[in-house]
Each structure stands twice: as C-alpha cells, then as structure tokens.
TrEMBL record:
InterPro entries in UniProt: MoaB/Mog-like_dom_sf (IPR036425), MoaB/Mog_dom (IPR001453), MoeA-like (IPR038987), MoeA_C_domain_IV (IPR005111), MoeA_C_domain_IV_sf (IPR036688), MoeA_linker/N (IPR005110), MoeA_linker/N_sf (IPR036135)
Swiss-Prot/TrEMBL catalytic activity: adenylyl-molybdopterin + molybdate = Mo-molybdopterin + AMP + H(+)
CDD domains, per the entry: MoeA
Cellular component terms per the entry's GO annotation: cytosol
Domain MoaB/Mog: 189-328
Presence of keyword Magnesium: yes
Top-rank taxon: Bacteria
Broad class of enzyme this protein falls into: transferase
Similarity comment: Belongs to the MoeA family.
Pathway(s) the chain acts in: Cofactor biosynthesis; molybdopterin biosynthesis
Protein known as: Molybdopterin molybdenumtransferase
Organism: Halomonas cerina
Keyword Magnesium annotated: yes
Length: 416
C-alpha cells in the first residue's frame, strides 16, 4: 500500500496537504441503493436525474382571467366575446376563434391559438363579453408560463453528487420521480478518550471534565446526514478498547475520536489503535487543531480520524478534515463556500499557519459583509463558538488582518 497518509512523518503539514493526504483513506464511494422520494432528504444522488417531461407540461395561465390571441398589429379590440371556460386540470382542444377569449384559471393550459392572459381585476363584464379596461397596457404574451420553461424534457435536472434538500425534493417530485439512486448513508462511529472525561449526568470528579466532544460530533455528523454509532467514552483499559475499536471497524464506514493525539501522548488509546489498525500522527499548521491522528482500522481498512481533545479544535478539524471524507464516501466533491467580509477589528494570526477564529458577520450599511471575532479564542472555550455565526479563515500566507481588510469567512450552519 502506498498511502501518502503514512509517509508524511513528523513534518508540519499545511491544511491543504493534510486534506489531500487524508483523501487517500477513502478509496471508494459507498454502495448505491434505490430510495423512495419521501426518504431522500439529506441523501446524495449517485446518478444524474434527467427530466422525462416538460415542466410545466403545458403552456398555461399564470393568472385567473381570460386567455386570448392578442393581435400583434392593427386595431386592438377592447371588448372580447367569451367563447368558453378552461379550469385548472381541464384542457380545451378547440382553437380560439379570432377576436374571442376564454375564461381561464391559474395553471390551466392555454387553448390552441391563445398566447396572452389578462387578469380578472382588469376586466369589466358586459353581458357575454368582457371589456379590457386599459388595452394599451396589455403586453403580447403576458402572464403565460411556457411549457418546459422550468425544465425541458431530456434536460439534466440534478447532477450526480447533489445533496437533496427541500428545494431538490420539490423539483424531483415536480418531475414525477418517485425515487432515486443514492449512496448509502455513511455510518460513523464516534468515541471520546481520556481519564478525566466524564459522561454528563454523572458526578464530576475533582479533576474531571464533562464529555462535550461526543455530543458536538454527533450534532455535526447528524447535520451531515450521517448515521451515528456512539461508542461512548472508551475506558483506559487496553482489552476493552481493542474490542470496541474492532467492533467499530466492523460496523462503521468511518471512525472519529477526540482526545489523546498530542505529541508524546502515552496512553492506552494509541496502543489499542495501533493494535487494531495502521496509524499516523500528524502536526498540521492550523489553529486550533494542530495534532491529529489518522489511519485505517481492521481488515476492511476503515478510515480513522483522531481529532484533538479541545472542543473547539474538534469542531474546526471536523469541518476541515471530516467533512471532505464524508463527501468522498458519498461520491461528491468537497465544496467549501467561503464568503468575503471586511474585518472591523484587528485579527491576530501567524504566518505559516492557518488560523480559524470564531466570528460574527453581518451586512453593513455599505452593502458589504462585516465581521468581528467573538472574543476569547482559547481552543477549549465553547461559549465563543456558540456566539459565532462563522469561522474567519486567516490563511498561512498572512499575518493577521487590520480593520478594513478583506478576510474569508465560512458561515456556520446553525439551527435558529
Ligand atoms: N507538548 C505538546 N502539548 C500539546 C500540543 C503539542 O503540540 N505539544 N498540542 C496542544 C494542542 S494545540 C491540543 S489541541 C491538545 C490536543 O491534545 P489531545 O488530543 O491529546 O487531547 P487531550 O490532551 O486528551 O485533551 C485536550 C483538552 O481537551 C479536553 N478534552 C478531551 N476530551 C474531551 C471531551 N470529550 N470533551 C470535552 N473536553 C475534552 C481535555 O480535558 C484537555 O483539556 O494538546 C495540546 N498539548
Ligand atoms: O490545536 Mo489545539 O487546537 O488548539 O489547542
């Protein structure tokens, strides 16, 4: 096996180098399965969806009113005899006689010959006819939705690799698609390590700390549409650890842990991981999140990522390194979508290292996005993460930023 992942040694890696090397851990996307429309939310398309119909199917009225063939030249009549009625769900095949109109409701197909719709509010009833109040305001072709204007038959509606959200589900349904081929949902095992780490609900020992990371990770994974296998807090007992890791390697597509990865960290976790798989310990030029372990576990060579223990480092390294692996497992490209904002304050970072600061961005009166940090940036301080709506990325080529300078921000997808 020529995994660059294991050959990078002790050198400090850039974020991009680390991400590229980690990609080797996932060789194949997960298998493809057919899933019914109602269960597709959050899933990733394994193949493109091509429209089998025109959407809309017919050229139809966008307003309740009358449909008629508007004379392109010559005298425009203001009174139009009503020759019939077309309701939504019905169709009139008889062509419209010149100078006549039909009553029509929104969504009903235009009869042959008709090309223009006038809304009811602009009409006055005169016996079996209607009078158009301001014929000079009518535009030829107005209030008509053309067949296929949303999607034409044979057109690719959604590309392979698309994650299906609310809009995509509506689009699939509008094509009459009752199900699609998607990648199996990734199954990700998570566990916490560390003697001090205590489960919420238990009494906190004098030197203890409550287990924040497993819940943060489960939340982040759920947001990514992943099935979470919670392995709990693994004990510092070699044999129990090996059993838990073997089980994870059997059942999961990816194993993610937190804690116990810093340089010289001599603990049971590392020994057990090395017994179950092949591991590399890295230092990455990123803050927070410098130490990281990676490798493969068990006979199935399940990718493993050991994130650092500090809670904010967990969130930042998840977004930088776990999300791209989840994308690969689901056959899609990693697509970070940073925005540009003007910093309102001095931001500190160091050249040669990518810094992620917790920030708050907002639209300024100048029409541009502005950002400031949420304050204390220690990598254990979760309250400044809770206050943040973005991460500010200061890449390794820059030394901080001064007020007025443009910086990259990554909006955080927060429930609100
Ligand atoms: N000599 C060095 N020491 C450290 C380095 C280094 O490069 N050289 N890096 C520092 C950085 S940066 C980080 S980040 C941490 C990462 O260390 P570990 O991954 O080994 O993590 P731990 O030591 O286990 O924990 C760090 C910190 O986080 C707390 N923690 C751990 N797990 C949880 C959890 N599930 N929920 C909440 N908090 C957790 C733990 O109590 C520690 O306070 O190493 C530095 N040291
Ligand atoms: O990389 Mo460690 O991230 O922050 O404290």
């Amino acid at each position: 096996m020529t995994l660059s992942c294991f050959e990078l040694g002790e050198r400090m890696l850039t974020v991009v180098e680390a991400r590229e090397a980690l990609a080797d851990l996932v060789r194949h996307a997960l298998p493809v399965e057919p899933v019914p429309l109602a269960a597709l939310h959050g899933r990733v398309l394994a193949e493109p969806v091509v429209s089998a119909i025109d959407v809309p199917q017919n050229t139809n009225a966008a307003m309740d009113g009358i449909a008629l063939a508007w004379p392109v030249a010559g005298e425009v009549p203001s009174v139009w005899p009503v020759a019939g009625e077309v309701l939504a769900g019905r169709q009139r095949d008889t062509p419209l006689a010149a100078g006549a109109c039909v009553r029509i409701t929104t969504g009903a197909p235009l009869p042959p010959g008709a090309d223009t719709v006038i809304m009811r509010e602009q009409l006055v009833e005169v016996g079996d006819a209607v009078r158009v109040e301001h014929p000079e305001r009518v535009r030829h072709g107005q209030h008509v939705r053309q067949a296929g204007e949303d999607l034409a038959r044979g057109e690719t509606a959604l590309a392979a690799g698309t994650r299906l959200g609310a809009a995509e589900l509506g689009l699939l349904a509008s094509l009459g698609v009752a199900g699609a081929f998607v990648h199996r949902r990734p199954r990700v095992a998570v566990f916490s390590t560390g003697d001090e780490v205590t489960a919420p609900g238990e009494a906190l020992p004098p030197a203890g700390i409550y287990d924040a990371n497993r819940y943060t990770l489960a939340g982040l994974l759920t947001e990514q549409g992943v099935e979470v296998l919670d392995l709990g807090i693994l004990p510092d007992a070699h044999d129990a650890l090996v059993v838990a890791l073997r089980e994870a390697a059997d059942r999961a597509d990816l194993v993610v842990s937190s804690g116990g990865v810093s340089v010289g960290h001599a603990d049971f976790t590392r020994a057990a991981l090395e017994e179950v798989g092949r591991l590399a310990f890295w230092r990455i030029a990123i803050r927070p999140g410098r130490p990281l372990a990676c490798g493969q576990l068990g006979a199935r060579q399940v990718p493993f990522l050991g994130l650092p223990g500090n809670p904010v480092a967990v969130m930042v390294t998840f977004l930088q390194f776990v999300v791209p692996l989840l994308d690969r497992l689901q056959g899609r490209a990693y697509r970070p979508a940073p925005l540009t904002a003007v910093t309102d304050e001095t931001l500190k970072s160091r050249q040669g290292r990518t810094d992620f600061l917790r920030g708050i961005y907002h639209a300024g009166p100048d029409g541009r996005l502005h950002v400031r940090s949420t304050g204390a940036q220690g990598s254990g301080i979760l309250s400044s993460m809770v206050a943040a709506n973005c991460l500010i990325e200061l890449t390794d080529d820059r030394e901080g930023a001064v007020p007025g300078e443009a910086v990259s921000i990554h909006p955080l997808h927060r429930l609100s």
